[in-house]
């Protein structure tokens, strides 16, 4: 596999490079433990789905007005993401953060790029007073969601969602999603990622939080170079056949990762501060040759808890 996940190969932290001070097929090695810094009716008919840009709930309808410009994966490409990546280990790290935000009698979450809904289902099972909105552009993944009276599924990109159509939420999730916010140039892509965070920030309640799981491609000697090179390789349509043969299932569409510092700068540009950062497992699917070609020093997963600054 080249750059994207459908599956993450973990490596033991004891054999991986040390964590920077600042504080993403094959068989999986045993994961190292993450270390942290610091109502409704039972009737399934009440589940809400957004299809063809129209929100349908009972007899009411709301038409969205915003227009998205991000590239979208084909159905064949999205099939590789029909699984849940937040496993028991990551859930054990995430759940305390959720307990801080979802302790009230009536809370809401928004899951951006929520796929088949298994993650949201787990949150709703753990927090019985919580309701959820899930945004997923891929029709096959959106339709795979299990109906629930407490879950609204929007088949849409985030940019097409009008904040006025979503009740303010306590938590917005971006679980391995921001790197898919890709447009036709690197500069415009980073701006699109920042704009998505700004839009999500506007959907938060005053004390709400964004939680972001992402891969951190830390480079040496140029910190954010690996993510830039990966974007240039995967986003070029003329290179798609070659890059696909190398294992990138997003070839021709693109992905845009950053280093830890790069993600932090992106959050700052969106008016967000990092309240907590949890460095998680290292990722070891790239060969030594590919690491050298990308200038990649370290590739790991991290969880960011963000608040409006």
Name a few traits of the molecule:
309 residues; alpha/beta; Rossmann fold; eleven-stranded mixed β-sheet; 11 strands; globular
Work out the helicity level. Answer: 25-40%
In the CATH scheme, what's the topology name? Rossmann fold
Shape type: globular
The H/E string reads: EEEEHHEHEHEEHEHHHEHE
Could you say which structural class the secondary elements and strand pairing correspond to? Answer: alpha/beta
Please state the second-level CATH architecture: 3-Layer(aba) Sandwich
CATH class: Alpha Beta
| Distance between the ends | 37 Å
pLDDT < 50 runs, ≥5 residues: 1-9, 12-68
The Rg value, from CA coordinates, equals 19 Å
Q: Describe the strand arrangement of the main beta sheet, using strand numbers.
A: 1-10-11-9-8-5-6-7-2-3-4
Number of strands: 11
Give the percentage of residues in beta strands. Answer: 25-35%
Query: Which superfamily, in CATH terms, is the homologous superfamily?
Result: Vaccinia Virus protein VP39
What would your notes on this structure say?
The protein is α/β, with parallel strands linked by helices and 309 residues long. The protein has a single domain, classed as Vaccinia Virus protein VP39 (Rossmann fold). Helices cover 27% and strands 25% of the residues. It contains nine helices and eleven strands.
List the SSEs and their pairings.
Layout: E1 10-11, E2 48-51, E3 54-57, E4 60-63, H1 75-78, H2 88-101, E5 107-112, H3 118-126, E6 130-135, H4 139-143, E7 151-154, E8 169-175, H5 186-202, E9 204-219, H6 225-235, H7 240-245, H8 260-269, E10 272-283, H9 288-294, E11 296-308
Parallel strand pairs: 2-7, 5-6, 5-8, 6-7, 8-9
Antiparallel strand pairs: 1-10, 2-3, 3-4, 9-11, 10-11
């Amino acid at each position: 596999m080249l750059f994207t996940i459908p599956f993450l190969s973990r490596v033991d932290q004891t054999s991986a490079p040390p964590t920077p001070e600042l504080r993403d097929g094959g068989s999986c090695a045993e994961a190292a433990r993450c270390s942290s810094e610091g109502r409704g009716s039972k009737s399934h008919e009440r589940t809400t789905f957004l299809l063809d840009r129209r929100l349908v709930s009972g007899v009411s309808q709301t038409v969205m007005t915003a227009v998205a410009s991000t590239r979208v994966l084909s159905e064949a490409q999205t099939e590789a993401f029909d699984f849940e990546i937040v496993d028991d280990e990551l859930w054990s790290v995430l759940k305390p953060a959720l307990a801080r935000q979802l302790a009230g009698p009536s809370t809401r979450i928004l899951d951006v790029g929520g796929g088949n809904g298994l993650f949201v289902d787990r949150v709703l099972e753990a927090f019985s007073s919580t309701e959820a909105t899930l945004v997923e552009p891929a029709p096959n993944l959106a339709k795979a969601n299990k109906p629930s009276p407490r879950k609204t599924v929007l088949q849409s990109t985030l940019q097409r969602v009008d904040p006025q159509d979503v009740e303010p939420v306590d938590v917005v999730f971006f679980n391995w999603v921001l790197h898919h916010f890709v447009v036709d140039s690197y500069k415009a892509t980073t701006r699109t990622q920042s704009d998505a965070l700004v839009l999500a920030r506007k959907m938060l309640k005053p004390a709400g939080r964004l939680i972001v799981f992402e891969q951190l491609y830390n480079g040496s000697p140029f910190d954010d170079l690996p993510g830039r090179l990966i974007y240039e390789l995967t986003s070029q349509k003329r290179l798609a056949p070659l890059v696909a043969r190398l294992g990138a299932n997003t070839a021709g569409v693109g992905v845009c990762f950053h280093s830890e510092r790069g993600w932090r700068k992106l959050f700052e540009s969106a008016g967000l501060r990092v309240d907590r950062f949890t460095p998680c497992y290292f990722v070891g699917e790239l060969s030594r040759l590919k690491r050298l070609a990308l200038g990649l020093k370290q590739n790991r997963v991290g969880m960011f808890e963000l608040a409006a600054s």
